[in-house]
Amino acid sequence: MPHELKPEDLGTYRESLLNLQARLRGDLDQMTDEALRRGQPDSSGNLSNVPLHMADVGTENYDQEFTLSLIENEQDTLGQIHEALGRIDAGTYGKCEECEEMIAKPRLQALPYTKHCIKCAREMESRG
Questions:
Q1: Predicted pLDDT at 34
Q2: Alpha-helix residue ranges (DSSP H) falling in the chain
Q3: What's the confidence (pLDDT) of residue 2?
Q4: What is the rounded distance in angstroms from the CA atom of residue 107 to the CA atom of residue 113?
Q5: CA of 111: how far to CAs of 30, 38, 80, 114, in Å?
Q6: Do residues 104 and 117 touch, judged by C-beta distance below 8 A?
C-alpha cells in the first residue's frame, strides 16, 4: 500500500498541475480562436467567407465540431486540475475518493489530477 505523500511531493505535484493548467489554457485559447475563425485570414481569396463547394462546407463543419469537442475535453481536464489543486490545499490529495486508499505515485505522475486509484478507476469504467 502506498504511503502518505510528503510535503515536497505535494509541491512537485502542485507545480506539475499548474504547468499542465497553463499549457491547457494556452491550447484552449488557440482552439477557441480556430473554432471561431478569428485570426485566420482567408487564404483562398474568397472575400465572402463562404466555401465554393459542398465538400468544403462539410469539411469546415467537421473541423469545427471536432475542435469544439477538443475544447470541451480540455475544459473538463482544467476542471479536474482545479479540483486536484483544491485537494492539495485541503490535505486530501493522493487519496482515492472511492476507497480512500492512497493512489500509487506512478498513477499520480501520469495523471496528477486523478481522484481514483487504478483499481477503483477500472471498476468504475467497467460499470460504465
A1: 77
A2: 7-35, 54-90, 105-110, 118-127
A3: 53
A4: 10
A5: 23, 32, 10, 5
A6: yes
Using alpha carbons only, what angle is made at residue 23 by residues 112 and 77, rounded to the nearest 5 degrees?
50
Residue 31 to residue 6: CA distance in whole angstroms: 37
Residue 95 contacts by C-beta under 8 Å, 6 or more apart in sequence?
87, 101, 102, 103
C-alpha cell at 35: 473554432
Contact 16, 8 (CB under 8 A): no
Domains located in the chain, CATH noted: 7-37+54-127 (1.20.120.910)
40: its cell numbers? 485566420
The pTM of this model reads 0.76
The three three-digit cell numbers of residue 72, written as one number: 470541451
